[in-house]
TrEMBL record:
InterPro entries: Dimeric_a/b-barrel, YCII. SUPFAM superfamilies: Dimeric alpha+beta barrel (SSF54909). This is Uncharacterized protein YciI. Residues 1-18 form the signal peptide.
Amino acid sequence: MKRIILILFLAFFFKTNAQTENPKYDSTLAESLGGDDYGMKMYILAILKTGTNKTEDKEKLNELFKGHMDNINRLAKDGKLIVAGPLKKNDKNYRGIFILNVKTTEEANALLLTDPAVKEKLFDVEIFEWYGSAALPEYLKSHEKIEKKKH
């Protein structure tokens, strides 16, 4: 009898602590975004930091930063870049981040080299695999609606 009570207790405990199905789950949306059972997926996180190119030629710097912004916009339009933004000045010389919507570090490295500021070593880059919400790309649709000025 004690064994049956213990089994029933354990069954009840595991059932109450088990994960449940989400009633708001949209399988079509999850599939279109590449989400797993938890609505998550892998991305590549790139941290841009001050590079080895120390040029002070203002015209060259302006050209490289214009190319950097143009590349960001192109990659976002292509769905490859989900998040980009500068970091506040810090003691590690980290300058900004990218979250790339790609599957491999090799693909990420190839995309990063399309950025003139990375290619010319104004920025060095550290990359990491990052597991985040598959819905992350969806925020870009809202951002366009609140962006008063375009780069």
